[in-house]
Amino acid sequence: MPDILIVILAVIFVLGIAINIHEFGHFMVAKLFGMRVEAYSFFGLGPRVWGFKYGHTDYRISAIPLGAYVKLYGDEATAALEGGQSDGEKVPDSELYELRPRWQKFLVMLGGPFMNIVLALAIPFAAAMIYGIPSMPAPIVGVVNTGGAAESAGIKVGDRIASFNGMENPTWERIRDEAMISPDKHLPLVVDRGGQSLPLVVTPKKKLDDGNNVGEIGLLPDVGVEPVETGSVLPGSPAEAAGLLVGDRVLAFNGQTVRNSNEFTNQIRENKDAPAKITIERNGERREITTQAKLESEGIYKIGASFGSGIITARVPVSLGGAASFAVDSNLRILRLTGKVFGQLFAGERSVKDAGLAGPVGIVQIISKVVKELGFAGLFGILAVISLNLGVFNLLPIPLLDGGQIMVLGIEKVMSWFGKTLSMAIKEKIQLAGLAVILLLMVFTLFLDISRFF
What we know:
Helix content: 40-55%
Largest sheet: 4 strands, mixed
């Protein structure tokens, strides 16, 4: 299948599910309260292009490719964006959205983000139940890259990281995350070396990763001894030229025993472009191949192959409670990182370009990279991230978004205390103003996406 077709299908899969699970949330709550749904557009806003009617609801595809929507009878505030006014059919008052109490309208608006968050939790929960959760090694240093930030800070192999940037007993994931969002910032840490606590300061080096500046400290954990097998070999790479095949087990590098994939990858980098002898085992037979790493664009020497454990030792089985805890922690991690980045942005510690904001082009690039590297199975991870971000973003008090409509409900409630109400004309203007804000955000993020090419 051509790559472009695979990418198109991947984008449709990820965005189609993330957006429609959101709209299904609105649809489900409205139906639960007995509200009549006039239209459910699976794709697009505006005039109807194609569809079919089932019951009272018109299921359709619309003309403007900006998401999807559910339109309820009696809710005409967004009629201009959702294909116009109702068709004039007489609908019982009991089924009209506009005549329902505000708490029901609030729950209808909340249904979309709620379903996005449920999906974001369900994906890591299912993965944990099926495959187990990643086994996190103790924060003991196994590899210190030569010339890296960790070496400059005085960190040594065998050190146990007792504290990192104010967090006691950090996990490797937390250490990596803190470093990633703190390029060129001084981060305090404490290491335990031979029973002594040594306070140090590390400054993650800034590097370009997919167009974004991230921090790297040049540390890898000590994962012990594990089999190292070739997972993939890139066409035209030094590894392919040397005759390395998928499934080959790596035993030694330049005569030195290979303990794990982290150590082996670091040995390749440290050897740079000097000829290297790799001892492998293939079909029970030992062989020795010679290769020479190549300097890649990110300034790292690689031979063009990926390596990992030949058996699944990186995951451990968990109970229902453990899987649920893992799912919650995974989503809180994303929210924590996002919150910290935006905090740095508003504090002036990070530029807008370095904030990692992705527009339409950026999202397609991310999905394209994931499907090419990990296949369609890898899309579930990015689907969880996009669904979570979509759910949280929609809760922002911006008109047109669910959070904006919840805000309008709050304004109406306050006005009702004084015998006032918002007219339909004002509601429509508020929604159109919200559309303008959303379009400006899209144009701005699109500009950032394109600027990363240069």
